[in-house]
Amino acid sequence: MATMWKVLPKFVPKPVGCGSYASNPNIHFFICELINMTDDIPEIQAFTETLAELHTKGISPNGQFGFEVPTYKGTIPQYTKWHDTWEESFHHSMKWFMLAEEKSQGADEEMQQLCQNLLNKVIPRLLRPLETGGRQIQPRLIHGDIWAGNTSTNIDTNMPVIYDGACLYAHNEMEMAAWRPIRHIIGRQYMKAYFNYFPISAPEEDQDDRNLLYYLRWDMKSSALFPGNLRYRNMAKETMRTLIAKFPDGYEGWARERGEEPVQRTIPPTEVGGNLPMI
């Protein structure tokens, strides 16, 4: 929250302080300024223009993807280690949520196979083209968890406001992961408006499939948060089946079809730290 406030203070409540209870160091707190807010989601143009401003001004301090401290999706820490390429950063982030999901819901043979195919075929196919063939993206500061419950309008300024962030320096399009499903009232119409202020990354024709990939990460996180509820796992399986069927030849097949020389990358094992195993 402090990082977002420093970049665009008009968009974020001012942080006041944080710490741990003296009586129980396992209980933590965060305090920010009180903002009088409406009960509605913000107006579409003001919101998407201001979000694009955050992404434009929020540039990674070291030019890498990641974040300087662990950030959380609910009770689950995100993977925030620094990486030079977005493909590698997202690969590890997705793998981490795959591990968290399996720990929460239990092992599933089909799920394991789908996850492996997604890592080997789909992620390189959709993300490597962003940073090869003369194309490039910059790591942008994203809120990381924007949906109707984490944004509103400041009654006093009539400006949109966001809070409860799960920040990363990432591909800015990942900000819109949760805007895909029709059950979310901040949806595709907001995505369309956003691209009036921040252009779609090249290859532009991959944008919708990238959004589906980013939304898959959201569903994996949601499944991990609700053990015993297989709704999100089943949705994740369906998404992976769809993406794997669409891109059976992976990145190399796409590059050959485009007449580009394939760029080879080797992704090292995901190091999650502490006493957790290597994935």
Structure, described:
There is one protein chain. This protein is an alpha+beta fold. The chain contains 8 helices and 8 strands. The strands form 4 sheets. It has a two-stranded antiparallel sheet. It has a two-stranded antiparallel sheet with strand order 3-4. The protein has a two-stranded antiparallel ribbon with strand order 5-8. A hairpin with a 2-residue loop joins strand 3 (72-73) and strand 4. Helix 4 (109-127) packs across helix 7 and helix 4 (109-127) packs parallel to helix 8 (250-258). The longest helix has 20 residues, at 86-105. It starts with a helix and ends in a 21-residue tail after the last helix.
Summarize the main sheet: 2 strands, antiparallel
- Stretches with pLDDT under 50, minimum 5 residues: 273-279
H-E string = HEEHEEHHEEEEHHHH
Instruction: Give me the side-by-side strand order of the main sheet.
Output: 1-2
Mean pLDDT: 94
Percent in helix: 25-40%
How far do the termini sit from each other?
A: 30 Å
Number of DSSP helices? 8
Structural class per helix/strand content? alpha+beta
Q: Tell me, briefly, the overall form.
A: globular
Taken as a percent bin, the fraction of beta residues is: 5-15%
Rg, nearest Å: 19 Å
Number of strands: 8
